Amino acid sequence: MGHNILYLSSFVKLGSFLNIFCEAEKDTTDPWNSKLEKVIEEAGVHNPWFTRDNVNYVLAYWGRQLSEKNITQWLSPYTLPNQELPKQIAVIMAGNIPLVGFHDFLCVLFSGNTVVAKLSSNDRVVLPFLTEYLKAMDPGLEDRIFFTQGKLNDFDAVIATGSNNTGRYFDYYFGKYPNLIRKNRNSVAVLSGNEKQESLRLLGEDLFRYFGLGCRSVSKIYVPEDYDFTPLFKAILPWESLLQSNKYANNYEYNRAVYLLSDFDVLDNGFLILKEDTGIASPIGVLYFEYYKDPEQLKQQLLAASNTIQCIVAENFTPNKVALGQTQLPALKDYADGVDTMAFLLKLA
What we know:
By secondary structure, the chain is of the alpha/beta class.
C-alpha cells in the first residue's frame, strides 16, 4: 500500500480553493479568484457551450472530489511509486464538456509520471489555469506538466479520448505504444413508470447538464409499453431555460424542422423532442426512447451494447446502475469505460 502520495497537498489546496470559489461568500481578496473569474468568462467566449453555470458546476464538483480523504481512499488499493524515473504520458483530451480530461491528468501525476497534454481547441483555458495554481502550490510540478499544441513527440504511453472517427486514427498512430483509447459512448436510463416526481426531476440533470454533450449524459430512455410521458415532461420543465443558449435553441429548432418535414411521429414539449428510435446517441435537443416488455430481455440487450454505453441510470434495474441525477458526479474510482487508468499507468513502471 503506497500512502506517500505525490503532490497530495497541492491538490487538496486546489480543492479547497475551488470550494471557496464556488461558495456564495467567496474570498474576493484572493488574487487567484479574479483570475479564475476571467478564465470562466474566456472559456464561455471561446466555446459558447461552456456556460458559466456549467463551468461552475464542474469546478464545484472537483472542489468536492479533491479532499485528502477522497484522494487517499481512492489511491489506497494501489502501490504508488516514489517515481525517480517518470514516464512521459501523452494525454489527448476531448473538449465536449469542461475539464473532461482532468481525471486522466490526476492519474498521470499521482502515478508518478509526467503529463504531456494535448488540449482540445474547445477546452483550452480552464486546465492551464488549474495547472498554474498547482505549480504555484508546488514548484516540483514545473517539470511534470506540459501542454502541446502541435504534433506529439517523445512519449512512452498515450491516453486518448475522442470520437469513433478519431479513435480509428488514434489506433493507427498510437497502436505501437501502450495506450488507452476511448471512443464515443452515451448513457441510457431505464424507467419503470413508478418513479416519483423527485426522481424524474433528478433525471433532468442526467439529460441536460452540459447540454447533454457528455458521454455520461443520458441520450436515450427505455420505458414500459404503456408509459405516460406527462410526469416526465412536467418534472424537466425547469430546463426550458436551455433555450436561452442560441446553440441549443438552434439545434432543437433544426431537429424539429427535420422531423416535421419527414413526417416522423415525435413528442415535443417546446424545448425537447422525444423520438422513438433504436439508436442510442441522439442529436442535441432530442431524446430517443424505446419501449420494452421484459426487463430481463432488456438487460441482455444492454449487455450486448455495453461497449457503447457509459452509464445505465435506473432505480432498481441492474447491479451496476447509476442513481437518477448522479451521472455527472462520478467518484474518483469510477473510471471512464470501466478501464482502470491508474492500474494501466502503474503497470508501465
